[in-house]
Structures are given as structure tokens and as C-alpha cells.
Amino acid sequence: MERICEPELMDEPLQAQAYAAADFSSGDRAVLERIDAVLGPRGVGEGEGLSVVDLGCGPGNITFLLASRWPEADVLGIDGSAAMLAIAERRRLADPDAHRHVRFQRLVLPSPRLAGPCTAVVSNSLLHHLHDPGVFWGAVKQLAGPDTCLYVRDLRRPATAAELEALVARHAGAAPAVLRRDYAHSLRAAFTCAEVSEQLAAAGLEGLQVREVDDRYLEIHGPIPPGRLAP
């Protein structure tokens, strides 16, 4: 099935509110477990000395889970949507003591203001939003240092329209109309594992692992290879 891009930013207030109200807790916690595994020994303890950047943080779901898991780590959530970040910032201010090491920043990629290095770059469902995936991998390299690790989870594009419709019914059948609409658009805009592998080769990031996860996701993870880190 041919890829069809969707809007890069989720800036509709209705979208932001629907995503903030939806229960993604099971999937979000699975992402956190995978990030913990990718960090390995560096993830032991409360996060002293860790710095984590959450690319495409949306309303902050993963960002706040990271801060809860590693309360002493510096956690930065980055997104281009003002509507999403407004919700994230309200959540942060609702418990400033618990979120004292959390920050949010509005940036539209590509951006020269994106600065590393950090301990880990994480991202959940941003890649498929970008019309040019090279922009995403350029941002990863801007944030990377010699010891930076990466964890990305994203949708993968189904092979046929019938498979797409089945996924929407299976995973979003009871969701509000705006979420069902966006989910279908996102599946059509997503990449296959083979396409991501080609992107990594073009970006000089061939050492990262790419694999399919369950019936709809792919993940990219590992230490960011040394060498061609400059975007």
C-alpha cells in the first residue's frame, strides 16, 4: 500500500483534548519498559546524571512516565504542537515538586535550536508524522553524543487497505471519531521496517536495530553508532 502523508502537527484543540483524555497507559508503560531495557545499567537507580529527550512528546504521557521512573533525571519533552504542549505544561504545573526536572519546549523540526548530547533519545509515534523522515534522523544525530542510546516506537504501514481497516476496528473501534480518523491516517502515513532500514543507512545509523512488534508497531533501538553524527 502506498504511503500517504498526514499533517505533521496535531494542532487542533479537539485532537489534543482527545489524545489527552484517551487511555494509552498500557502501551505507554510498555514503551517505558523497553526504554529501561535499552538503558541497561545506566538506568539503575533514580536517574542521577541522566538526561532524556522525548521527541514528539505530545501531552507528555511518556515524558511524565520517564520522570516518575527516574525522578532525578533531566527530562525534556519536545513537540511542535502548541495545543499538545499547553496540556503537557498544565500537567507539569499541577505537581511541580514531582516534575521539578521536567521541561517542555516547542520546536518544529528541523531546528538549529535542538542541542545535545543527552543520555537517551526516545520517541513514540513521531516518525510517521514527518513528511521527510530524514528530518527525524537528523534530529536524533543533533541530540547524540558518543554514549547516547535511542529507543523509537512507531506505527508500521499495513500492506493493504483491508488490513488497515481491520487494525482501526481492532484497536480504535470504540474510540472517539477524531481518534479513529487520525489512527487510520497515521497507519497510512507510517513506514515499513524495510523503509526504516533504508533511512538509517542513508543517515549513517546502520547499527541500530529495527524490528516488528505485535500487529502494528515497529521499534528502532540501540546505542547510536559513532561516526557520522553531524546532521
UniProtKB/TrEMBL annotation:
One of its GO terms (biological process) is methylation. Residues 53-149 form the Methyltransferase type domain. The keyword Zinc does not apply. InterPro entries: Methyltransf_12 (IPR013217), SAM-dependent_MTases_sf (IPR029063). Coiled coil: none annotated. PANTHER family: TRANS-ACONITATE 2-METHYLTRANSFERASE (PTHR43861:SF1), TRANS-ACONITATE 2-METHYLTRANSFERASE-RELATED (PTHR43861). The keyword Translocase does not apply. It comes from Aphanothece cf. minutissima CCALA 015. GO terms for molecular function: methyltransferase activity. Keywords: Methyltransferase, Transferase. SUPFAM superfamilies: S-adenosyl-L-methionine-dependent methyltransferases. This is SAM-dependent methyltransferase. It comes from the Bacteria.
